[in-house]
Write a structure and sequence with these properties.
With about 80 residues, this protein is an alpha+beta fold. It starts with a helix and ends in a 27-residue tail after the last strand. The relative contact order is 0.10. The mean pLDDT is about 80.
Length: about 80
């Protein structure tokens, strides 16, 4: 029979590194220029489904190539760009 201390040691050995990955992973991702986003509608189907998590990298417009997926922020509908 496995002792309670042994079970706790195994759990700590598994959960400790997993916890480090969960903390260090996002920091490294931001440091390397990668970001995350969630698909908010079904407009990208069937390639991406609503609620799916995406990882993207910001690039200059000259780096966009055929078959790349481009994410952008739409200007607010209430924002006026017309001169006063």
């Amino acid at each position: 029979m496995v002792s309670k201390a042994r079970k706790l040691g195994v759990a700590a050995g598994v959960l400790g590194p997993l916890g480090l990955l969960l903390v260090i992973g996002p920091v490294v991702a931001l440091w390397t220029g990668y970001h995350g986003s969630t698909v908010r509608s079904g407009r990208m189907a069937p390639t991406y489904t609503e609620g799916q998590q995406l990882v993207y990298e910001r690039v200059d417009g000259t780096q966009v190539r055929r078959a790349d997926v481009v994410l952008f922020r739409r200007p607010s509908a209430t924002t006026s760009t017309a001169p006063s």
